[in-house]
Write a structure and sequence with these properties.
alpha+beta; 34% helix
């Protein structure tokens, strides 16, 4: 009978990882982690812009509704303003918690004596958003009741 207790197992060529295999696996894993990290950065940026876009649309809608319910001879319904920059009282800046600063501007043009064209633009003032978060609404406002101050 043969004694097998003291025998060493035969060495095989595939008994473990070589240094080259381990380094190759680390390099592949590093590229994969870089791709996932980049994806997370892009997702966070897009989320920030989406938050400011939603806030800008809400602020533009609020400003438009506010202008629609004002009396006809109110100073804020007088023709003027501009969408490019803040002109006189034709703008407002709102700080929204968790979102950031949103600037709302409006422009009012007189179509005729009883009709005004109102255009409202709002956009986030964050580092990443700017024009990417812009919301713009337009409407006509007519005065048909002389008791409301119509000409």
């Amino acid at each position: 009978m043969r004694d097998t207790r003291n025998r060493r197992p035969a060495r095989r060529g595939e008994a473990g990882f070589t240094l080259v295999e381990a380094l190759t696996a680390i390099v592949i894993l590093s590229f994969g982690l870089m791709a996932v990290t980049n994806l997370m950065v892009v997702a966070a940026s897009s989320n920030s812009v989406a938050n400011q876009s939603t806030a800008a649309a809400d602020m533009a809608a609020r400003a438009l509704e506010s202008l629609k319910v004002r009396p006809w001879n109110d100073a804020l319904l007088a023709p003027g303003g501009g969408l490019g920059s803040c002109v006189n009282n034709y703008c407002e800046v709102t700080d929204i918690p968790g979102v950031g600063r949103v600037e709302t501007r409006w422009q009012i043009e007189s179509v005729d004596a009883q009709t005004r064209f109102i255009r409202v633009r709002a956009e986030g003032r964050g580092v990443l958003s700017g024009p990417r978060s812009r919301a713009e609404f337009t409407t006509f406002r007519s005065c048909t009741t002389p008791q409301n101050g119509c000409p």
